[in-house]
Amino acid sequence: MEPVGRPSSAGGGPAGSREYKLVMLGAGGVGKSEDAYKIRIRIDDEPANLDILDTAGQAEFTAMRDQYMRAGEGFIICYSITDRRSFHEAREFKQLIYRVRRTDDTPVVLVGNKSDLSRLRQISKEEGISLAREFNCPFFETSAAFRYYIDDVFHALVREIRRKEREAALANERKLKPKTSMWRRLKSPFRKKKDSVT
Ligand SMILES: Nc1nc2c(ncn2[C@@H]2O[C@H](COP(=O)(O)OP(=O)(O)OP(=O)(O)O)[C@@H](O)[C@H]2O)c(=O)[nH]1
Ligand SMILES: [Mg+2]
């Protein structure tokens, strides 16, 4: 039986052209829109179609936000290293994801953008690392303007999605396994008997 609500490994179209629905979150002006598009890349020798949803920092309807929070498979939470308020909002976005999805298992990558503006820096790299540790997710400082570490962000997020899907599949297998071995044990005396008679 297919696990409910999860794409099967064979699903998603011809030979591995799996699509990943990624959502960009973050306060207004942090640089989310610099990288929002559809891209096709290879990650760990497997092709991936990234469908990236750009969201607006503030003025959005809650109902719509809940919808893409549910539909998204991976989330990039973005702040600007030049804007402390956006750093605080990063934590709020993480909480929002939890509130909508009710699980800490959602694939997330934390991004501190505008790393090129070092003279305007308000958030140290250590603060970013520490927040990512709290989120239990990968972290990158990027510059969308110079395309520093942008690809790494998408790669890390797809890897997170794949890893969590593997974990879910394994957990599912483990759930089924005890039943199988129990059935074998129940059947084995009969099998032996039959064997010795014939
Ligand atoms: N120096 C520098 N500027 C950047 C960088 N990324 C984005 N910007 C600039 O920051 C401004 C805001 O970028 P957007 O991509 O529009 O920000 P946004 O997060 O989409 O903002 P909202 O759509 O309002 O939520 C623009 O002027 C960008 O050119 C970066 O890495 N470095
Ligand atoms: Mg934008």
Explain what you see.
By secondary structure, the protein is of the alpha/beta class. The chain has one domain: Rossmann fold. 44% of the residues lie in helices and 20% in strands. The protein has four helices and six strands; from the N terminus they run βββαβαβαβα. It has helices at residues 62-71, 84-101, 125-135, 150-197, and strands at 18-26, 38-43, 46-54, 74-80, 108-113, 139-141. β2 (38-43) and β3 (46-54) form a beta hairpin. The longest helix has 48 residues, at 150-197. The protein is elongated and about 80 Å long. It starts with 17 loop residues before the first strand and ends with a helix. The model is unreliable at 1-13 (pLDDT under 50). Bound molecules: guanosine-5'-triphosphate and magnesium ion (MG). Magnesium ion binds next to loops. Magnesium ion is lined by residues 32-33, 54, 56.
Summarize the structure.
This protein is an alpha/beta fold and 198 residues long. A hairpin with a 2-residue loop joins strand 2 (38-43) and strand 3 (46-54).
CATH architecture: 3-Layer(aba) Sandwich
Count of structural domains: 1
Order of helices and strands: EEEHEHEHEH
Based on helices, strands and strand pairing, what is the structural class? alpha/beta
Uncertain spans, ≥5 residues at pLDDT below 50?
1-13
Question: What's the helix count?
Answer: 4
Key traits:
198 residues; alpha/beta; Rossmann fold; six-stranded mixed β-sheet; 6 strands; 44% helix; binds guanosine-5'-triphosphate; binds magnesium ion; small monomeric GTPase; hydrolase
